[in-house]
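Hey, I was hoping to borrow your eyes for a little while. For a while now I've been wondering how a particular protein folds. The fold is given in discrete form, as structure tokens running alongside the sequence. Could you read through the record and tell me how the tokens relate to the sequence? Take your time with it, there's no hurry, and the full record follows here:
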Amino acid sequence: MTQKINKHNYKSDFLNILEERGFIHQCSNFDALDEKLMEGPQSAYIGFDATAESLHIGNLTGIMMLKWFQECGHKPITLMGGGTSKIGDPSFKNEQRVLLTDEVIQTNIDKIQDTCFKQFLNYGTGENDAEMVNNNDWLDGLSYLAFLRDYGRHFTVNRMLSFDSVKTRLERESPLSLLEFNYMVMQGYDFVELNKRHNVILQMGGSDQWGNIINGVDLGHKSHQMKLFALTAPLLTTPDGKKMGKTVNGAVWLSADMLSPYDYYQYWRNCDDAMVETLLKRFTMMPMDEVNRLSALPGQEINEAKKILAFEATKMCHGETAAQDAQSTAQKVFEQGSVGDDLPSIEVSESDLEKGLPFVDLFIQCGLATSKGEVKRLIKGGGAKCNDNNVQNIEMTLNATNLTDEGYIKLSSGKKRHALVKVK
């Protein structure tokens, strides 16, 4: 029941756009889905964990798929895992997740809707307005025995053990609890409930979620003769094979409360040259003619394409004003040799600075390194700087004499990452 990408002209705008922009990896039935999309507005969903106060750019492919779905006149559903977040998706994890309380999960859901979804999707009561749904609405009240009788019988352990997400844990001899093993059953049941409640016919996600998604398609067919569809996008990896979206300082969050718009801008600005075309296709709404033009820029000119990518991606996530501020700061820091208002900063008291503060502590507080060992390595390689001068000694102490005429101390990690220490 799996079809790999089959390149041809689809009837539906949605599938044509997704193919052109590199979003398609697998589909349960391309032709039938294409026909269904031509019948009129349809509903599709993607599920999101509520295990943190923000989503990260690993979720951005799914959000953009929903955005294009809405742009094509259909209704996107953002399903928050209020119920499944109590379990945690075991996919490709080495150990069981920490269990969260209902209160923490609800707080996370509220913050995610306000800071991650509303910038990309239009919510409302119209025919193709987005809607947020919480699977706790139906999972929390399930009768266990009735659920096993009605739906559990459609899942075979043999097949569940065949999915990569489970096999990986077992091969590593990492414990896989019955609680986590139930996750794929819960996710399959979500699809059935969403079809009943919201007439959802399509679930989308990353290629690593194929097993969980196809379970829902199969369950809908076996239990209620539903005609459901699965569609996945290829996971993004960097040229060295690593999953995209991680930095030395952790996840690239979509919420400005967890990652500043400037740092978000810099993430895209510093992408690998080989990734420019893929990122412009996936994470901007720019016309494909312009994407192709920018992607073909030779040599150092590709940096102009990176600046446009960074601006467009930041504008979409944080708004045009934040994108302009981040762009202005980057120009001042990297092109004019000065600093900008949007540069990350920390504040210290005047009295503490008079006494003297350890350089290494301030460097870590600014987010330029995560440990003293990392600072040592930067110093050894000539990558740690104070006011654009190389730092030679990790025991260096900073005080008021290090303040520039503008009233700050500039710390740098390499050529691309900078932060300011300011006096309160």
The first strand starts at residue 3 and ends at 4. The chain has 19 helices and 16 strands. The two ends are 62 Å apart (CA to CA). The chain has three domains: 3-233, 260-334, 345-423.
